[in-house]
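Incident log, structure service

09:12 report received: a user says their structure output differs between two submissions of the same chain.
09:20 pulled the input from the user's history:
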Amino acid sequence: MDGELILRQFEHIESRIEHLVKIGRDKDAVIQQLSARIENLEEELRNKVEAEKRYSEERQAIRSRIDQLLARLKNIIGDE
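09:34 re-ran on a clean worker, output below:
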């Protein structure tokens, strides 16, 4: 009878260990998914930052061109 009890306890311990191993594997899979998601989000953020920088540079170039045209127009009007 003591042998049976010991076997059941070992089976119970084995079952718990298998369950813990499964939890660990599931956790590793989730970590991998989250890591991939973080990489994607970081890439998207880099792209958006670059796009914002290009937009700002384009806006500044357009503003500079408008200022030049206004200055030329002012010179033309001033000459008359």
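09:41 both user submissions now match this output. Likely a transient worker issue. Closing.
09:42 reviewer note: The mean pLDDT is 94. The radius of gyration is 34 Å.
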